[in-house]
Amino acid sequence: MAVHDEAPPASGRLNPWEMAQAQFTAAADRLKLGDDLRAILSEPKRELIVHFPVRMDNGSLRMFTGFRVQHNVNRGPAKGGIRYDAHVSLDEIKALAMWMTWKCAVVDIPYGGAKGGVICNPKELSQAELERLTRRYATEISLLIGPHSDIPAPDVNTNAQVMAWIMDTYSMHAGYTVPAVVTGKPLAIGGSEGRVEATATGVAAMVELAAGELHLPLEGARVAVQGFGNAGSIAAKLLRAKGCRIVAVSDTHGGIYSASGLDPEKVMRHKQEHSTVVGYPGAETVSVEGVLEVPCDVLIPAATENQITGRNAPNVQARLIAEAANGPTTPEADRIFFERGVRVIPDILANAAGVTVSYFEWVQDLQSYFWTSDQIAEKLSQVMTRAYGEVAEIAQRERCDMRLAAYMLAIQRVADATQLRGVYP
Ligand code: NAD
User: Contacts from 214-217 at CB under 8 Å and sequence distance 24+?
Assistant: First the structure.
């Protein structure tokens, strides 16, 4: 049986927006979604492009370009992270915004999808330049963001400090403190317990549930992690605590492999000292792409889009892939995995714990009443376990992979909300 009804374009990497469209079309076809709903759901609601100046430390002025895209807000305010990267493009942000809509719907939290980004290399900027860039970008997109309209969060190369600057900037304009305008803030200014490790906690929980179904014991299971940032490094640490052996990790400089296992805490210290995992004592060096193909049972892509394609999917040795990253696997690679019986837990489910705890943070901020880390952990576990069960049930019923199942669940929820609200005027 074909897992997707429509063949995606040629082999290899895809424009992320084309990839998002292909995934949407496959699920919409299966759901027999009508033309009107397809037309509404297949495009973003708003796309804002901003060009803005930032004063550099040496007194010169530099222009930057940023984006904020809201894909759909029929189920609630727009929600999605902000990415700082030299290769950010409008198409990438559109895809990420659409994926956020589906992600929030899969875990059934009352948000629509959004994403933002600035074209920059944050490693080349001083803290002061980064702060000025962030405050100006936040001001430029304040046309859209707000605690009841669109709530940013951290993503690649942004963190709690960047969120603190955005919250402060928005609050300065409002004249009073508005903690609920962003999530992923430091605890001291309205952040939530459990947010930093939320995404990885969810990824580890999804791995545990799927490994149980696959009769793959976690004790001694070999895990490879691509991308050793917030999501990847903490996932490695949590999976090791569950008995897994972390055999490979990587960053933009390359990867390291050790059949006997790596200690993620020690690798993290090495990375802090040397700005890369490469060179970690006692491990073999592997290429950036090589990490995806090492002997392992579980693969965690935790870097960026388009990493596992038709070209390298046949070489992936893992039985289970849990997508901490957004959009790491192309539709062609998905088809190969489905045929080979490799289980893929799709991004919109696997990494949804991040936005789920962001939702908890927002609710706490709006109520000015904060929960304990045990309360967060318990509520998160309930949401993720329920979502996994619902997606697995659809995958079994429809005899499809978990991505298509997750898309069907999510798109149906968004379509129902859209239908009920009707078309204005
Ligand atoms: P991060 O900036 O903390 O880490 C990204 C890591 O990936 C860095 O170590 C970087 O060196 C590495 N990297 C980038 N390109 C690479 C490549 N081609 N090969 C190997 N390593 C590479 O970012 P993060 O917050 O951990 O996000 C990682 C992914 O997880 C992104 O796709 C993001 O959208 C997704 N995600 C993150 C969260 C979250 O809460 N942080 C939530 C949901 C999804």
Answer: 214/319, 214/320, 214/343, 216/297, 216/298, 216/319, 216/320, 217/243
Pocket probe mutation, ligand 1, options 100, 102, 155, max atoms within 8 Å of Cβ: 155
Say if CB 76 and CB 111 are below 8 A apart. Answer: yes
Question: Is the Cβ–Cβ distance between 388 and 213 less than 8 Å?
Answer: no
Helix (H, G, I), strand (E, B) or coil at 207: helix
Per-residue pLDDT at 420 exceeds 70: yes
For residue 409, is it within any domain? Answer: no
Q: In Å, what is the CA distance from 80 to each residue of 52, 113, 326, 343?
A: 21, 6, 12, 27
What is the Å distance from ligand 1's center to 98 Cα?
18
Expressed in angstroms and rounded, the spacing between residue 92 Cα and the centre of ligand 1 is 14
For residue range 48-99, list pLDDT tens digits in order. 999 999 999 999 999 999 999 999 999 999 999 999 999 999 999 999 999 9
* Cross-strand pairs, 321: 299, 344
CA dist 214 and 229 (Å) reads 28
Are residues 224 and 342 located together in one domain of the fold?
yes
Is 115 catalytic? The answer is yes
Catalytic residue, chosen from 79, 94, 103, 115, is 115
pLDDT tens figures, 185-209? 999 999 999 999 999 999 999 999 9
Order of strands, sheet of 320-322, starting from the edge strand that comes earlier in the sequence: 284-286, 254-257, 245-251, 222-226, 298-301, 320-322, 343-345
Domain range enclosing 125: 46-189
Element (H, E) at 26: helix 16-31
d(CA 151, CA 183): 7
Listed residues 130, 159, 189: the one ending a domain: 189
Q: Is 53 helix (H, G, I), strand (E, B) or coil?
A: strand
